[in-house]
Write a structure and sequence with these properties.
The protein is an alpha+beta fold. The protein is built from ten helices and eleven strands. A hairpin with a 6-residue loop joins β9 and β10 (about 320-325). α1 packs antiparallel against α2 and α7 (about 205-235) packs across α9 (about 265-280). The radius of gyration is 24 Å and the shape is globular. About 30% of the residues are buried.
């Protein structure tokens, strides 16, 4: 079982077939069952995966949960499915709530095939929590997701370990979501808090309005500086002359081409980040960029047949990083180039595949 590879394939299917997954049955067949299989369970073995699971007692007549995942004769995970077009919320989990109290399961998943909300009984024993402790989005697989999901695989499943980590995961998820919102659009509370701690004197409406412009810019500067610091550290093995030469080659391509190709600072930033990631395994001198109207290709040894990644930054709506599983490109939507660091495992794995000197 290769969880990394299987989730990549599922992610590709999600992007390509999303428009055809309007019904619950389509989501089950195309995404949910393959997801369960990716975790190492035999979906055709009823001792491991029970479809249309029905508890014997304490449940409304005829009410069933879509799947029960078992190990060693015990029901460990309950799964309730909804159509992929449906936005998930706790009101869709009423069957899970009822089944949770009458089975041995302490884990439940509410899913539309693309998003997977993981629940447990952290707050009150044998009563499913109202809020998930972890949310997995198949359309945007992060490096951290692989490590978390490995705990749910048949091979590594340990209820005690999962429950122990669940509380921290829930708090971490809430903190990350909160910080993302604050970083992207600082709230009045954050702006007021910073102003009170920085400004000497009374906070007038004019001063607060000024801080509302300064704070977002300051956050951007901090993030950019952190990225640059990591880049500098990772690339220190590369000579300054070579670095300057690379920069000149990129900028020269940008200035001299007459075919409408424009290499942006964002593409250069993405290229540098991939160089930094690659520096953990090979010399960053072996990483090149070739720009085109459609995307900027990141190449190994300046060989167009050895593509490490593609930077799809030319679209106005959504930006993507394309990684490769053999010849198949998997697109990862991003909002900021710093999110490329979350794709480190994909990039390193690809470089190892391409490195013929390995």
């Amino acid at each position: 079982m290769d969880l990394y590879r299987d989730l990549q394939e599922l992610q590709k299917k999600t992007i390509e077939q999303k428009q055809f997954l309007a019904t619950e049955e389509a989501a089950k067949t195309s995404l949910v069952l393959p997801f369960i299989r990716a975790l190492g369970y035999d979906v055709f073995n009823p001792s491991e995966v029970i479809p249309e699971f029905n508890a014997d007692v304490g449940i409304k007549k005829g009410e069933k949960v879509d799947y029960a995942v078992c190990k060693d004769g015990k029901v460990n995970i309950l799964i309730e499915c909804k159509p992929s077009s449906m936005e998930l919320n706790v009101s869709h989990a009423h069957q899970l709530f009822r089944y949770f109290s009458v089975t041995d399961a302490r884990l439940a998943i509410l899913t539309n095939g693309i998003k997977y909300q993981f629940y447990s009984d952290i707050e009150n024993s044998n009563k499913m929590d109202d809020n998930p402790f972890y949310i997995f989005d198949l359309s945007f697989v992060r490096n951290s997701d692989i490590k978390i999901l490995e705990n749910f695989t048949k091979k590594h499943f340990s209820l005690e370990n999962i429950i122990e980590k669940a509380s921290d995961l829930r708090v971490q998820s809430l903190v990350i979501d909160y910080l993302k919102k604050e970083f992207l659009s600082p709230s009045d509370d954050l702006i007021s808090f910073i102003a009170k701690n920085v400004h000497n004197g009374r906070i007038t409406a004019t001063i607060k309005d000024n801080y509302s412009k300064i704070v977002p810019n300051s956050i951007s500067v901090i993030i950019r500086d952190l990225v640059n610091e990591r880049l500098s550290t990772a690339l220190k093995s590369s000579s300054s002359d070579q670095e300057s030469l690379d920069e000149e080659k990129i900028l020269s391509s940008q200035k001299n081409d007459d075919d409408g190709i424009v290499t942006t600072e964002e593409e250069i930033s993405g290229y540098r980040i991939i160089q930094a990631i690659a520096a953990k395994y090979v010399s960053p001198k072996r990483i090149y960029m070739r720009d085109s109207k459609s995307y900027a290709a990141i190449l190994f040894d300046d060989n167009n047949r050895k593509q490490i990644a593609r930077l799809h930054f030319n679209g106005k709506a959504v930006k993507y990083i394309g990684t490769f599983n053999d010849r198949e490109e998997i697109k990862h939507p991003i909002q900021d180039t710093t999110e490329i660091y979350e794709l480190e495992d994909y990039i390193i794995k690809r470089i190892k595949e391409l490195d013929t000197n390995n």
